[in-house]
Amino acid sequence: MHIEPVKEKGFYDFLGRQVEPKGLIGWLTTVDHKRIGILYAVTALLWFLVGGIEALAIRSQLAVANQRLYSAETYNQLFTMHGTTMIFLVVMPLAAGFFNYMVPLMIGARDVAFPRLNAFSYWMFLFGSLLINASWLFNAAPNGSWVGYPPLSLFQYSQGHNYDFWLIGLQVLGVASVAASLNFITTIINMRAPGMTMMRLPVFVWMTFVTNFLVVLAFPVVTIALAELMFDRTYATNFFNPMKGGLPIWWQHLFWVFGHPEVYILILPPMGIVSEVLPVFARRPLFGYPLVVGSGMAIGFMGFTVWAHHMFASGMGNIANAAFALTTMTIAVPTGVKIINWVGTLWKGQIRMRTPMLFALGFIYQFMMGGFSGLMHANAAHDSQQHDTYFIVAHFHYVLIGGALFGLWAGIYYWFPKITGRMLNEGRGHAAFWFLFIGFNTTFFPMHWLGLNGMPRRIYSYSHAQGWDELNFLCTCGAFTMAVAVLLLFTDMFWFSLRNGEKAGNDPWDARTLEWTIPSPPPVYNFEEIPQVKALDDFWITKHPELMHHHDDEASHEAGAGHGAGHVHHDDHGIHMPGGSWMPMVASLGFAIGGWGLVHSGGMYHIKEGIQSALDAATKAGINWDTLVNTAQTVVNTKAPDAQNILSVTSAEGVLKLQACYNGVKTAIVGGVLGVLGVFLWALEPIGGYYIVKEKEDRISE
Amino acid sequence: MSSEVLLDNPHEMGCTGMPHRKILMWTFLASDCMFFGSLISTYLVYRGHSTDHPLPEDIFDIPLTSTSSFVLLLSSWLMVLALSAIQKGKLWEFRLWTLGVAFFGSIFLGFQVYEFTHFIHAGLTLKQNLFGSTFFVLTGTHGCHVAIGVLWLMSLFFYSFIGGVTKERSLDVEIAGLYWHFVDIVWIVIFTAVYLLEYII
Amino acid sequence: MSQHASDLDFEHDGHHQGDGHPSVLFYNIIAISLFVVTALEVGVLYPPLNEFSLYFKVLLLIVLSVGKFAIVVAFFMHLFFDAPLLTFLFAIGMVIGTGTVAILINVMPAPEHPLQPRGKPAHVEAEPPGAPPAEHSLLLERWRVS
Q1: What are A4's strand-pairing partners?
Q2: CATH superfamily, domain at B18-199
Q3: What is the ipTM of this complex?
Q4: Given B31, B32, B50, which is nearest A245 (Cβ)?
Q5: Is the distance from CB of A627 to CB of A561 less than 8 angstroms?
Q6: Count of beta carbons in the 10 Å neighbourhood of residue A241
Q7: Cα gap A539→C21, rounded to integer Å
Q8: What is the CB neighbour count within 10 angstroms for residue A542?
Q9: Which of A51-55, A347-351, C105-109 has the highest mean pLDDT?
Q10: Helix, strand or coil, per DSSP, at residue A537
Q11: Which chains touch B (3 or more CB pairs under 8 A)?
Q12: Are A687 and B162 within 8 A, CB to CB?
């Protein structure tokens, strides 16, 4: 086997893409879906530690009554960033890591449809997450909860850059998510191996597909909402300004039109993982595959019809409340169908209690608990009692930790051997499961009672008289128990098993899907020969014909997509691999710098309005802007008004702030230009890359 | 860049027999429906909520906006002609029509700049009232889309002189065309929902 | 009808009319009909507005602009000639998008005291409560369920 670079001809040789880059540059310029998947997952796990520390800080503050560990302002920042981090920087990108690594392997492709766009998504995500967390360095972390309701988040009530960081950070993360989703939709539609019809796709791929549609359709709405709020803060528009007739409730609508599909974006990928894990460890094919797929699609579609159940307490009127209560309760039906199917898969199975299975079973039980409490506040009348109490906190942690996180951990234990070639330790895995399971239920089950006893969400402290002491202390104990589980997983994953774990081999779990047919870790080209798929669970049928008797080749007569000519026509040259590229990183760096500038222009017109009289006086006196800024600097330093009495100390501070805003705008322009330049160079880049050519005598595998 | 490399490129076509980029573009347009849907619904929801003048009826100029709508339609027409030309390999015709699209796109932008200036002189600014906020952000976002389209088409125009646009690569033009037509249909909706309906309900 | 455009551009689904993209003449006819529809749309504004013509005009405008939209998408954007998959992809966005917009407009409260345009006579605002709403917001009031 040898490598043959693609010969570039002509004009743009200077832009030539890296041929099989190695080392650090290899990681920075990578367009390999496997490396990008690892980058996503590792970044997400690091943010998981940060979000977890924030959670522990919150629980420590609430451990006993009248606690004052840190200020209420810090507390606000902590719970806001905890929510934002866990949703946008942990669960979504960790799922994206699995999409990246597993989807091309599961559909029998060599990469995603747009490898450089994929790298761009990752770098946008990384820079967006750094941008939003950079707020800590300025003591300006977002502080009005992850939903950012105006008027609290308007400039009039939040004059620091707290919400500017949040708005722009989420905007950048949104671009990353949408770009990645467009890429995966195209990949799943268009890069399936021959014979891999839609109804032979593994359920995880199906759930990825549905999730990515949700991202593509829900994120534009929040993009608009964030842009409107940003305009309100920076350019003094009136979208949410009640003084000018704006309606803060409009933010809630737009946010939840996005926000509800978002919770399915978080939960559908773990549902897919669980649907992969259960059949493997129950030694039975997934019960009712078409129903599981169909209910996933139904959940995705109905996710767009239920958003206002987050707003039952906002006075929308009885008709709207009733309608949204109805749609919300209906969505429990497809969810229930899935649970029935998972239980049906376990029924009469030969269950092997390996770690991924434990987490998958934990998922089913806890997600069901979260679903039941969800049904309780799907009832609008009931919800008016529970809204904004700890009951809600309990509910969404049951679905997001008990559901999403358990599912993702099942995925980590299940696919770690494929990604690294080594098994995670079973003993430590079991211990981690029990610590997480017990810790989780100890933390969040009592919150149901606390909520029904009236403990409000986001409360900083409480007194003995309220009678919440014991349960809160219990919750905190549970939180630290969960931390032990996280420590166990992380040390095992990044240290013990990574170095000394048992060698995995191609197929340690005796699994069903295509990724297990190739070596662990997979070679850069994934499949030496693109596989031909003949049935659902093809690999299993090949290995265990006796297990699959009722199931054979049900989908072979399906019309439509399937037999691709696109993949297999390059055997004469060997396998074409795309070369690395700097452009995705350059473009996303440009946009991130632009975002940084926009953050610092936050509040510009409001500040200008505040010092308008001083500016007018300065214009009248013929003082230009630069002189005014210098004067303002002196005034602020000496704490006395200037000689001509144009600037008071307050207005001098305003002038300096305005100058900072103008600098922000300049940075934004520079960043934007760099970003667009990056995109242009990216478009002009030649195909490049290299061919992996196999010699007659040596086969590439093993 | 030689066309052999491109035709060899396994990353171009997929198992449904359609190029990846076409699928990506249509999915992106579906996503853009939600994007403009949110903006247009913001405008419609806030109709009548303004607490200060000027209101739309005080300042809208239907003949002017109708003219710019015609201009955008005209550019859409030239866009299909450009695509049709390059698909037949008529490079010069393609260049002519593409330049025409970009030209009329710029005329549309010129109308918009004129309209915005006129409105600002009439006292309508971003922060004057809700009408100003919603109107400028909606039509401004659409204008940005048009500007990106003009930039894109001009890039294709110049690219055609160094051999980047050929009959074999007409997909590049088709994708740009899809984007351009989408910008046009968004304007069809905005023109009706924002301008015309204003005079009736 | 033109011959097949390019090697990259082949299509598998037997769903198209003819063998590829339509002729220039066809595009010209489409473009002219779009111009005519747009002229009609603007023309709709000019006949006098009253209780009866109000509904008719609104309906006509919506039909005309939806028609224009459909023509551009189907013919200029080739959706009519292309694979049904692309129609499906775009339809997902259109259906969820229009549905969401419709619901949003209906659940948001209507303005309680809409400001009158400058051109309107002052007595419109001074009408006693209970009088029918001003012409300006006649349909708006019925349209929105609050």
Answers
A1: A691
A2: Cytochrome c oxidase, subunit III, four-helix bundle (1.20.120.80)
A3: 0.93
A4: B50
A5: no
A6: 21
A7: 42
A8: 12
A9: A51-55
A10: coil
A11: A, C
A12: no
Strand ordering across the sheet containing A575-577: A2-5, A690-693, A575-577
| Per-residue tokens: A519 | 């070596």
Amino acid letter at B91?
A: L
Question: Distance, in angstroms, between B160 CA and closest chain A CA?
Answer: 13
How would you classify residue A87: left for phi > 0, otherwise alpha for psi between -120 and 50, otherwise beta? alpha
How many CB atoms within 10 Å of residue A352? 13
DSSP bridge pairs for A690: A5, A577
Measure CA of the first residue to CA of the last residue in chain C; give whole Å.
53
List the single best residue of A117, A238, A677, A680 to mutate versus B (max B Cβ within 10 A).
A238
List Cβ neighbours of A381 (8 Å cut-off, separation of 6 or more).
none
pLDDT in tens, A188-213: 999 999 999 999 999 999 999 999 99
CB hemisphere CA count around C6 (13 angstroms): 25
pLDDT tens-place string over residues A112-135: 999 999 999 999 999 999 999 999
What's at A217, amino acid-wise? L
Q: Is A559 on the interface with B (CB under 8 A)?
A: no
Cβ(B132)–Cβ(B125) below 8 Å: yes
List b or e across B62-101, with b for residues whose CB sees 16 or more CB atoms inside 10 angstroms: beebbebbbbbbbbbbbbbbbbbbbbbeebebbbebbebb
Give B20's contacts in chain A (Cβ within 8 Å).
113-114, 186, 190-191
Contacts of C6 (CB under 8 A, 6+ apart): B87, B167, B168, B169, B170, B171
**Is A166 in contact with A230 (CB distance < 8 Å)?**
no
Q: What are φ and ψ of residue C21, in 5° steps? A: -95, 155
Among all chains, which residue has been given the structure tokens 């967390």?
A133
Instruction: Provide the token pair at A260.
Output: 């509800």
Cβ separation A182–B35 shorter than 8 A:
no
CA separation for the pair C143, C138 (Å, rounded)? 9
Q: Which amino acid is at B47?
A: R
Residue with tokens 């449809």: A113
Orientation of helix A406-420 relative to helix A33-62, angle to 10°: 140
Among candidates A124, A113, A119, A65, which has minimal Cα distance to A89?
A124
Helix locations, A492-624, DSSP H: 497-500, 538-543, 583-600, 604-610, 612-620
Handedness of CA C54, C56, C59, C63 (dihedral sign): negative
| Rounded-to-integer distance, Cα A316 and Cα A323, Å | 11
Residues A476, A478, A482, A488, Cα dihedral to 10° = 110
Strands A2-5 and A575-577: unpaired
CA-based nearest residue to B127, from A37, A612, A449, A551: A612
Q: How far apart are CA A439 and CA A699, in angstroms?
A: 50
* Residue with more model confidence, B16 or A466: A466
Cα radius of gyration (chain C): 22
* Residue A180 near residue A118, CB atoms below 8 Å: yes
Q: Which residues of C touch B55 (CB under 8 A)?
A: 115-118
Quick: pLDDT tens for B119-143: 999 999 998 999 999 999 999 999 9
Cα–Cα distance measured from residue A572 to residue A554, given in angstroms and rounded to the nearest whole number? 34
